Amino acid sequence: MKIHKIKSSISNYISVLLFNKRLPISYCLFNFFFNKLIVNKKNLNHTLKTFNDEGYTKIDSNFLEEVDEINKNITIKEKFPNRVEYDLSQNIKTKIIKNLNDKLKDLLNNLKKYYNSNIIIADMSIWSNFKPKEISSSKEYFSEKFHCDGYICNYIKIHINLMDVDKTCGPLNIISKKINKKFIKDFNYKDRNYYNNDNNYDYIYSNTGKKGEAILFDSTNCFHRATIPENYRTMMQLILFVSPFEQTEQSNNPKFSDYLGYAKPTGIFNIVNLFSKYLKNKLNFKR
Predict the structure, then answer these.
(1) Rounded to whole angstroms, how far apart are CA atoms 253 and 97?
(2) What is the pTM of this model?
(3) CA separation for the pair 228, 158 (Å, rounded)
(4) Residues 6+ apart with CB under 8 A from 163
(5) Residue 163 burial by CB count (10 A; 0-12/13-18/19+): exposed, middle or buried?
(6) 221-279 pLDDT, tens per residue?
(7) Domains in the chain and their CATH numbers?
């Protein structure tokens, strides 16, 4: 095993012990101080309070109109053995992002106040997961093992159902961040490949719902997984990016690669420098 992989394994192991999350220790420290010093937890509405306490929350808005538009216009981008990724023409994508920004306006404004920073839709992806012909416990087909996404907490997700989703459709499972410690103990969790997967505790949240419904969740602080559908499940994912800049230009054709370095920083200097930008945002941010 290479030295950087050994360091990464040790760092993640320490994070599980100290912070009840499987992330690099530097990311856990960033998230800890970000939560303590940057996040504004005053006067939260029900949606933001649930998000703050649990790490996930259903969104009040319904996106059925946008979902129908997407379903009519998606084209296959790439096929994998158990997954198909889709794309939209630039005109349709621009229209959808504009409509999403309009419908999410109140939520995005509330998130701006919560994070003391600008929020942008940085990425949009659409895919279907299909049941594998043969299922082996030694394989992972589409992130169906519990994990935390390897970014800092300026990376947030919205999942929108492009179809009705019940428990047979392979819904997203989420663990509330406030019980991460209990989850780790109950599952004897070491990492995504080493934990007791025989348990089916009732605190595992299953993101079922109707077409057009959506959920906001903090995928860096919540353990989560996909599950295997009996047939298939089609979803749309939005990445919301908490910007470290006082002013952020909105783009109708966002590329998350432009922001990746700020969501996945490397080196202590870059991490501390990034944190200082968010601290400056808080001091200057206009509510």
Answers:
(1) 8
(2) 0.91
(3) 20
(4) 169, 211, 233, 234
(5) middle
(6) 999 999 999 999 999 999 999 999 866 555 445 566 778 889 999 999 999 999 999 99
(7) 3-284 (2.60.120.620)
